[in-house]
User: Fold these one by one.
Assistant:
Number 1:
Amino acid sequence: MEKLVTISNESGLHARPAAIFVKTASQFNSQISIEARGSSVNAKSIMNILSLGLKKGDEVKIVVNGVDEKEAMEALVELVESKFNEA
Amino acid sequence: MVQGTGASPGIALGKVLVIKNEEIAIEKKQIDSIEEEKNRFVEAIEKSKLELIEIRDKAMKEFGKDKSAIFDAHLLVLEDPELMSSTINRIESEKLNVEYAFKQIIDQFVSVFEAMDNEYMKERASDIRDVSDRVLRKLLGIKVVDLSVLDEEVILVSKDLTPSETATMDKEKVLGFLTDIGGRTSHTAIMARSLEIPAVVGIKDMSVSLEDGDFVVFNGETGEVLINPDKEEVNRYKGLKEAYENEKKELEALRGQKSVTKDGREVELAGNIGTPKDVKGLENNDAEGVGLYRTEFIYMDRDSLPTEEEQFMAYKEVLESINPRPAIIRTLDIGGDKELSYLKFDEEMNPFLGYRAIRLCLDRQEIFKTQLRALLRASMYGNLKIMFPMISSLEELLEAKKVLNEVKEDLHREGVDFSPNIEVGMMIEVPSAAIISDILAKHVDFFSIGTNDLIQYTTAVDRMNEKIHHLYNPFNPAVLRLIKMVIDNGHKEGIWVGMCGEMAGDKRMIPILLGLELDEFSMSPISILPARKLIKSLSYEEMKKFANKVMNMDSAEEIEAYIEKTFI
């Protein structure tokens, strides 16, 4: 299962948003990766996510496969679209 | 005597505790049992996690959420599946000892973060080092000095203090910090100021030359450090410490009081800030408002222009925190001397005389309008005053006001609210503006004299040029005459006149400025209470006579001598 989303929160996938994203992804046992800027990284690794340095306006593809892929995808897309409830 | 960088004011006397984090030496070794190596790794990670959870909870209790969040980030690094699996793969495939394998993976990540061109990511690199050192010390069995349990009052000495050390130490027992490296904005310095613990940083190999139990005295403001001083010097420092503490108590008593002279003339003492975080310093020092918010910082350390939303958030935060007291926010003052990767300036011979500040904004109106929109929207959250920098002619001022009105009309059409009564003023920092201040005063609600640049432009002296620094003198009669002219012209048109250059907080200058009838003094927050103490000791009528005499003197030398004589 794949879905394209755009990072729309102000600080991008840095600091707090990155930590929330990784924590959320790690709750699911599906295999989850993020494709951006031509590379694909494990979405459960804070180091990899931070090293992508994703900013507001960047488009990324979330790739999920595994037994709970539907719930995982929903949770992650909802997080991104709700701008990690930054004000 | 040793000289370092004074990082946090105060006098400290006491015995030294040197934190010698043994250099972590890693050798590459072939191993025989992969299983054993993997178990050692897992155990070290678990122990480090437990330690970090304990530190985080202690930091949360003492410093609150934002200071403890750093340890959540450290924990996340230890739970990172990539870090774990790549280390274990390396142990298995190359039969390497875990320390070497782990270090190699860490170095790869650190280099990725250090290569990124933004400050925030570079800081993450030092976080990862802090975490990996903790794990490596567990693996190598290096004992770490536990600062949370100190049996006597000590001065901490080390190469540099890490977030985990400053968060866990027993504050009541720590008399001061001394570090080999770092500057005024290093982690140790910032923590020391927020904990109000005296500190001197950047004293080359201090932690090497001192032993536990050495006695040291130092001054956190001047950066002077004496090692094992004799009796007489110890007593001198004891006296300094007492005087410092009395002064502090006296200033505390002035908190919440008005800044008024003996004969009832009240003035406003405000603070200069650069980021919303500085607002805490305003409250700590009882500022009566923000006299200058330099907005350049929002534009720096990033690779694109800040959005209207980002700026709105920053201005809203400042206005709310100081409300109902005023906040004067100066529009963008950026030019050749501050490179921005996303705003290319052509090479200029003299950036200070170049395409910058209001000139840039009037030429690139989309940048100016974005900032003005954010400011107007933020005005709903407090007492905003907008100030234009570097105005040198009436035409520029009228053009800037025209753009502001256009933005007001846009917002009005879009149904976006903004406060109806926002004072609009300008900096007087260009001599031409000072000389025609009688004309300009008709078109603004206030002046704020930016003496840092006014002195540079009036005396043609680059403030940063050491060789001619003696010519950069605020007591030069030419500068004082321009200041008097601006105040008088402003008052003639019924507007108030403030000052936001360094001079406003200089205790030798305050009596003259009071006598010249300046209405508002904006300075770095730490100078506010001392300035209030001085003003409360002065008589306005006497200062007017005093200023009059000063204005009739011919040289800075004569003026400085007269001040020395009158106030010592």
Number 2:
Amino acid sequence: MFGIYLKRELSRRKKAALVIAMGLALGIALVITVNSVSAGMQQAQDKVLKSLYGLGTDMTVTKAQTAPSGNSSGRPKFNFDAKSNDSKKTQSSDRVMTQGGQSLKSSLVTEVAAQKGVASAVGALSLNVTKVDGSFTQGKAQSSTQQQGGGQGGPGGGTSTGQPQVQGGGASFDVNSYSVAGVDVTNQDLGPLATSKITTGKTFTASQTNAKVAVLSKSYAKENKKTVGKTVTISGTKYTIIGIATPDSSDSTTDVYLPLKQAQTLGDSKNKVTTIYVKATDSQQIDTVKKTIQKNISGTTVTTSADLADTVSGSLSTASNLATSVGKWLSIAVLVAAFLVAALLTSSAVSRRVREFGTLKALGWPSRKVTRQVVGESIVNGLLGGALGIALGLGAAYAVTAISPKLTAELGSTGGMGGGGGMGGGPGGGGPGQQAASAAKNTMEIALSAPVSLTTIALAAGLAIAGGLIAGAMGGWRASRMRPADALRSVS
Amino acid sequence: MYKLTGVTKRYTRGKETVEALRGIDLAIEDGDQLVIQGPTGGGKSTLLQMIGGLDRPTSGSVELDGVDLASISEAKLTRLRAEKIGIIFQAFNLIPTLTAQENVETALVPLGVKAAERRERAAEALRSVGLGERLGHVPTELSGGQQQRVAIARALVKKPKVLLADEPTGNLDEGTRDDIMGLLEGLWHEYGLTFIMVTHDSSIARRAPRLATIKAGQITLTEQGGARRAAAAQPFVQQPGQQYAQQPSYGGQGY
């Protein structure tokens, strides 16, 4: 009888059942949507952060920023020989600087690694290479006295007649800069190369601590038409290209990876690193580890991914904040409202059925049988709402993924960050400086998806049953309080 | 048999206390018919609730076959209602979403009768009130008279000892009223029920063998004579299961 009665009630009172179910469905759909969009935001943010860090990097340690002083790194110097008359041979000169001009002692790496809560620490050296190449032509000295003021290129061109004049001298130069990272080849799970995959060739082996080998980023290799097996020359040293690395995100700024020792030699920074990549033993303890490092090792800046996340701005962070704060509260509010509406509707439906339940009691139905009927109806309503809600929520999440709205993330410079930031102390040169500034403010575009996890669906189903139970408890309680004498009530 | 002793029922509405029944003493033999009448608010329905075990008196006892309905546990009282008491209501009180057959089945649910037997007995009971063709109809698809027949089938399907009726014809027109009264009297005879009915209808009250008038919570009993009783016992009775709708009008029998 329970089943028949239940079926009859639900099928003959479809509207009432549907209203309750729809209310619950709305709440549940919203929970699913907000949950999945939040997960999508999280993924997007992780992507952004991962582009700055290696996989598994929890924080980086860099030298505390000091005010850049003009003489700390010196002004760039390029030496060119003025070759003899007809020589138009291209000359090239590289200037190698540590990024930000600030470095830490290599010994700090072991010191950091020894800190409590640190699983491993790897040092890396970021260099910035400014390459200037071009030709320099010497002016020709003219002996003719008639031709005055013809030569402009030569120094010390006198104005007195009869003196030799320098004529036709000139120079044309290309200035471009790229970044080099010195990688600890013994531990490549952490560090700058950890964000990239080797797509061609091989990565460094643990024995190549001081080998003249290089891994190039895909974009750099393409731009400069380099392939595995060829060589790349940096500041006069030839490196054999052993691999091409494709970054996991388009954001990686390193062009050339070298073994750490080679990079140190190039940058004239023996036993120095610019960034220490740290992995914590427990990802929940990152803040504690950060404090420990800052306390025990002075003169350093520790940046965690949370700090980094704070620097993420743009539509991604706005949307992410919206999803986590507004979305969460909105879904809770709607859910509570849906539960309340379901409970009130059920309760009022029971009140309208006073005579029905009174009659059943007068017929000798025990209270629990009547209550069971009401609770049963509510749970089915809840499940119905849950199914509808899950369908609705999946639809919404699918729609978000299908549309995949583009979000932009701007990464502010936190000073001394391994990847993008901290080029402030660099040379005052126009070209490289501009590039540094743009690198410090990375803008990433990320498509938003709304992945629905099984957990989310389980949560939704649980909520549906809970909603049904709450409504059922309310209605059942009312029904159980009805007396058999209510059957004689004249209200219809 | 029923034995009511000093039954008093007080209701408290806010600060006001209403005494619906004041010390009722009443005995009803098995197989007897008692009609209760009286002005509205006089306590008729309250008395019926006491007799039917739907409510408990404030004081006094309501004994049915030696069991005091006023003092047994709720579970026992519920069980007793399920087994021994059939009730018919003025507004029929059918479950609106259930079919005629399922409505009748609800009376057998608390007795733990198996589904198949339940269906069979419900169909049989509906046939006996002339609704054998209407098993699958829901109440809204039935006329008032037919709905009351379903309710009668529901009251009798468990073969109760007592049949209580609260204004069973109150919502019916005259012709239908006569059909229903004829049916009830026939069943009363057939099953040997103790039949207690509350009514407003003076034409029904007049021909009752035994009449109880409740006024201001007090009872006056009137025995309406053996001849009348004998006459009352006779006329409308035909064999149950026949087409009661075709019976001669109740009102046309000279009451």
